[in-house]
Write the structure tokens for this entry.
Amino acid sequence: MLSYLRSLLAKDMNSKTYILLFMMVILLSGLYIFTRQRIPSQDISLNHSQEIISGSFVPSKLKSESEWKKILTTDEYHILREAGTETPYTGVYNDEKRKGTYYSVGCDIPLFRSETKFDSNTGWPSFWGPISLDSVVLRKEKGGDDRIEVLDRCEGHLGHVFDDGPPPTGKRYCMNSIALRFVSDNE
């Protein structure tokens, strides 16, 4: 390889130029390799480094990802386990008006009452508060932005909470319908 390069450049180059060219190739190769290596601290999973703000998971409700794939539909898995978001104004509970309780699809734990639901004009079911602060887990959003992620107690993504809700809490728990199961008080 080196002899091939030398023959291409031999006409107008002296040995000092070859050495300089060779050193440049080595330097650039080293920089490329160095920048392609991952720094060990970047290999830490985001799930393990996220700060829990409130609530806790129920160990008996936690499952492996392969178990979740067997239990949940494709859409439920995408929302709950991959932190997906349903398209606004498409969720079955966005316009739900009946009295009742909203449960987590993953854990079957009661999360919200219909009395706390309000029309936020965002396209997702919104609540000003959960049944109790222990009903959900709040943690800082993946990726480091300032949003607060709302999870059920079996580590499933439900949505986010924002500080632009109505009284008495001033909070807006913006949920994905797919992550919820509604049970009417009349059932």
Observations:
- Confidence is low (pLDDT under 50) at residues 30-49.
- Residues 50-184 form a domain with the Metal Binding Protein, Guanine Nucleotide Exchange Factor; Chain A fold (CATH 2.170.150.20).
- Strands lie at 52-54, 100-104, 110-113, 117-118, 126-127, 137-140, 148-151, 157-162, 172-175, 180-184.
